[in-house]
Amino acid sequence: MIFFWAFLVGGVICLIGQFLMDVVKLTPANTVSAMVVFGAVLGGLDLYQPLIKFSGAGATVPITSFGNALVQGAIVEGRVHGLTGVITGIFEVTSAGVSAAIIFGFLAAVVFRPRG
């Protein structure tokens, strides 16, 4: 059943993003930004973690999970280090993902010789 719920929740998140582009006429960049903010708001209200527990990858794979991760990192570090922790917590949570994207992007460019 977890696969069904993951598919359903992930599909609904994608449906919201598609709705924002097709009906509201947001650009793809604005849609991604809106989805990150949506995930951050849900994370700040403690509504995203129950969604992750319920649907697993259906809630952790879409871009909304990135917004949730930013907020959760800021909250955890803010409790420990105060205002400075809020700022450093955001960087701490995202640094591994951003670093991996840069490293793997570079390695792919070296291996596959992109045309440009």
UniProtKB/TrEMBL annotation:
Keywords: Membrane, Transmembrane, Transmembrane helix. The chain crosses the membrane at residues 31-48, 55-75, 87-112. InterPro entries: Spore_V_AE, SpoVA. PANTHER family: STAGE V SPORULATION PROTEIN AC-RELATED, STAGE V SPORULATION PROTEIN AEB. NCBIfam families: spore_V_AE. This is Stage V sporulation protein AE. It comes from Alicyclobacillus fodiniaquatilis. The gene is spoVAE.
